[in-house]
Amino acid sequence: MTYPLGLQLRGRKVLVVGGGPVAARRIPALLDDGALVTVVAPYACEDISERAAAGSLQWLQREYVPADLDGAWLVLSHSGTPAVEDRVAADADAARVWCVKGGDHQASRAWVPAVAKVDDVSVAVNTNGDPKRAAALRDGVAAALDSGELPLRRHRRSPSSEGAVGSVALVGGGPADAGLITTRGRRLLAMADVVVADRLGPRALIPGLGADVEVIEVGKLPGNHPVPQDEINRILVEQALLGNRVVRLKGGDPYVLGRGGEEEAYCRDHGVPVEVVPGVTSAISVPAAAGIPVTHRGVAKGFSVITGHEDITQQAGLIPVGSDHTLVLLMGVSLLPKSVASLISGGRQPSTPVAIIENGWMDSQRVTTGTLETIAGLAAVRGVKSPAVIVVGDVVTLSPHWPTSHLPLSVEINTE
Question: Which residues make Cβ contacts (< 8 Å) with residue 380, sequence separation at least 6?
Answer without folding.
Answer: none
